[in-house]
Design a protein that fits this description.
The protein is α+β, with helices and mostly antiparallel strands. The protein is 24% helix and 26% strand. The chain has 16 helices and 28 strands. The strands form 7 sheets. The protein has a 7-stranded mixed beta sheet with strand order 3-5-1-12-9-10-11, with helices on both faces. A 5-stranded mixed beta sheet has the order 7-16-15-14-8. The protein is globular, with a radius of gyration of 26 Å.
């Protein structure tokens, strides 16, 4: 690497180890004298645990211990609020922790000398359940007479309600020449990361209870584990080995607390690895959402009003529903200026799997509705979809739905134009362009269409939280810099963050990056980095490393040897929603995206194929352009799976698609023929070298762009994801 590292595409620093298998993930870890932990899941969606009989399991061969709710010092946890028992059952000091609320609730753990012995003993545990009324429909669960799933949390199952009131929606429709009213449904999505939940816990040389497991925020994990064990934070150490994907799904804990509990009690190393089925039933998913929308525009093509209701299935526990659905509220009007807005967003407890963080964090659901509304309005007005967007796109100074302007610079227009130009978008044409004849009788059933959509997403944490991020830089050497050590706890979950951390430090110090040594993800030796989420880590880590490196460089120039500096970056302040109007400055910056898609639809089979997708993403400054392109391509494929293929099915709270053989994610044969990335760079004045966030951005408009392309090809709108062949044929009237 050269001295000017920022803006250049360098090979990932973790590539060789991951490709050769030298890199260790949580499931690869082992220690002398290690025990194995297995978890007993409830396997029923709503019941009271009346008794747990563990005697046979305790007496089984190789068993070191069996733990239930009575063994957990403080039997509760949760990233936002502690509403989930560590283990469900009688004997806990916390109220209502004897109730299981979804099939993946954990009831007991067995620790044994081998995985096979732990598994065998697990089958000997006998649990007495009293089934309770089942709530799997959020709308039903919202009713005043619905059974309460969390009686200690209030008198309703509605756990989130946000209001946005801007202008006067009641009077505004009279000014609209066209109105589009629709209802949309978006599904649960499984994270399907390659590495299932796994970890190793032990007592380190300093006497700390140490947990090595994949996560997204070392210090939040530490705090949650410490709370459940009734210990100070300083008694817990969290280390991240290599992490095989996260996508938001590792924000909420899974195996960490029970591992720490076992290590604390037994004073021996304890390891566990969940099976794929356990991962699918035992951990949170993308929120399923129902959206109702009524939007109006003038015949000149200006948006007048938007009225929106969004109901999110929060599932059994809060997880991050309050934050996810807050982001849905912000993005539900799209990146457009709308003078009159009325939005109600609800999150509801049910007996389904908890709704969790997932790439896009509430924006994909909201933007599926918003962008579909835009495309339908454009059609009603007889306007081109791109032209209609450009007429209404936010500009510097325009107020968002929350009543305040988006922070400058607002770059959605540049993104729309970049996607339009790269795609060579042509204005409105007839539906259903036929492809090459594939039928012997000369009549092809294959039609093609193209669609357009846009979106935006916050960078960093929101709603009044003081965003912060810590780094430390050490410069070693005599007359010249010989070695630089960067300390940062930010998680590398596959996105390339650790590589750009090295690049940014090298750039500030004017050295080649091979002189930079990175020490990461250890809560005992590093301060708080914040989470690898909210498209924030390049922005926040970049500013903290830049600040620490600049301070260390000043000391170096003053002849300090070694030159060591720490820096804590504080982002611009934000404010929470006003409870009645939503008025706020909820984020300090946004990133913008626009996409155009071309699809092929077989009107006989309902099969859908994405031929080409162009994604124009404003990253502010591409620190490593190849990594940016990799993120765009990966997000598009993951979003295509959400839009077309991934059909998560449940019945009465039971997961039917509990294996990757039944829950299908895209393979190499399913991805688009072409994904074309356009890197837009409109610098953010607060970003390191102008960088914004990227990780979630290219996911956001994929589904509505495909929906518009299906409509262009066939003349039908499909308002529910995924666009399976059955759903396509039903929309075409081929099946009932």
């Amino acid at each position: 690497m050269s001295e000017n590292s920022v803006g250049k595409s360098y090979t990932r620093i973790d590539a060789r180890g991951k490709v050769t298998g030298e890199t260790l993930y949580s499931g690869d870890l082992a220690m002398t004298g290690m025990l194995h932990l297995k978890t007993l899941f409830a396997e029923r969606p709503h019941a009271r645990v009346k008794a747990i009989h563990i005697e046979k399991a305790q007496a089984a061969k190789g068993v070191a211990a069996v733990y239930t709710a009575r063994d957990v010092p403080v039997n509760e946890y949760g990233l936002q609020i502690p509403d989930q028992p560590v283990l469900c059952g009688p004997g806990s000091s916390k109220p209502y922790t004897d109730i299981v609320r979804f099939i993946g609730d954990q009831v007991a753990v067995v620790i044994a000398n081998s995985e096979a012995e732990a598994d065998a003993a697990l089958k000997l545990i006998e649990v007495e359940y009293e089934d309770l009324p089942l709530l799997t429909d959020p709308v039903t669960a919202m009713r005043p007479d619905a059974p309460l799933l969390h009686p200690d949390r209030g008198d309703t199952n509605v756990c989130v309600h946000y209001k946005i009131r801007k202008g006067n929606v009641d009077e505004a429709p009279a000014k609209a020449d066209v109105i589009v009213e629709s209802e949309y449904h978006t599904p649960i999505q499984e994270h399907a990361y390659l590495q299932p939940e796994a970890g190793l816990a032990y007592i380190d040389s300093e006497g700390l209870i140490t947990v090595e497991s994949g996560g997204q925020w070392t210090h939040a994990d530490r705090e949650t584990i410490a709370h459940a064990l009734g210990l100070p934070n300083e008694k817990i150490r969290v280390i991240y080995p290599a992490i095989g994907g996260a996508f938001g799904g590792r924000e909420d804990l899974s195996v960490q607390i029970t591992l720490a509990l076992a290590a604390m009690k037994l004073r021996r190393p304890v390891k566990t690895i969940w099976s794929r089925r356990e991962s699918i039933i035992g951990h949170g998913k993308r929120h399923a959402v129902t959206l109702k929308a009524k939007w109006g525009a003038t015949k000149e093509g200006k948006l007048v009003a938007a009225e929106i209701e969004l109901i999110g299935d929060g599932g059994a526990y809060m997880y991050t529903s309050n934050k996810v659905l807050g982001n849905s509220a912000i993005t539900s009007t799209g990146p457009y200026f709308i003078p009159n807005v009325k939005t109600d967003v609800y999150g509801v407890y049910t007996n389904n799997l908890p709704g969790a963080a997932f790439r896009g964090f509430g924006a994909p659901q909201a933007l599926f509705m918003a962008e579909s509304q835009m495309n339908k309005l454009a059609e009603k007005l007889g306007m081109d979809a791109v032209e209609f967007r450009l007429k209404n796109a936010l500009k510097d100074g325009d107020t968002m739905g929350v009543g305040t302007p988006a922070p400058n610079p607002v770059s959605i227009i540049q993104c729309i134009e970049a996607a339009r130009d790269k795609f060579k978008w042509k204005k409105k044409r007839d539906h259903g362009q036929k492809t090459v004849d594939r039928k012997k009788n000369g009549q092809s059933s294959i039609v093609r269409g193209r669609g357009f959509a846009a979106g935006f997403k916050n960078v960093g944490f929101s709603f009044g939280y003081q965003e912060n991020c810590w780094a430390k830089v050490e410069i070693h050497g005599n007359g010249k810099m010989e070695r630089v050590v960067v300390h940062h706890a930010g998680a590398e979950v596959g996105q390339g963050t650790h590589t750009v951390m090295v690049q940014m430090a090298a750039h500030v110090l004017g050295i080649s990056a091979d002189k930079v040594e990175l020490r990461t993800s250890d809560s005992a030796t590093q301060e708080n980095p914040g989470s690898a989420s909210a498209s924030r880590l390049t922005f926040m880590a970049g500013n903290s490393i830049k600040g620490a490196a600049e301070s260390a460089l000043e000391k170096w120039k003053a002849e300090e040897r070694p030159a060591i500096a720490e820096f804590k970056y504080l982002a611009p302040r934000t404010t929470p929603f006003d409870k009645e109007t939503g008025y706020s400055m909820p984020n300090f910056q946004y990133a913008y995206v626009a996409q155009a898609a071309e699809v092929e639809v077989d009107t006989e089979t309902g099969h859908l194929r994405v031929i080409r997708l162009v994604s124009a993403d404003d990253v502010g400054k591409a620190i490593n352009p190849d990594l940016v392109i990799g993120q765009i391509e990966g997000a598009v494929v993951q979003a295509q799976g959400y839009a077309i293929l991934e059909d998560y099915k449940t019945k009465d709270g039971i997961v039917l698609t509990d294996q990757l053989s039944t829950y299908l994610i895209p393979t190499i044969l399913d991805i688009p023929d072409s994904v074309e990335s356009v890197i837009v760079e409109v610098p953010d004045p607060n970003g390191p070298w102008g960088a914004r966030g990227l990780g979630e951005l290219p996911f956001l408009p994929v589904a509505p762009a495909i929906a518009a392309a299906i409509h262009d090809a066939t003349g039908v709108w499909i308002n529910e994801l995924p666009f399976t062949p059955e759903r396509v044929l039903r929309a075409l009237g081929k099946i009932k």
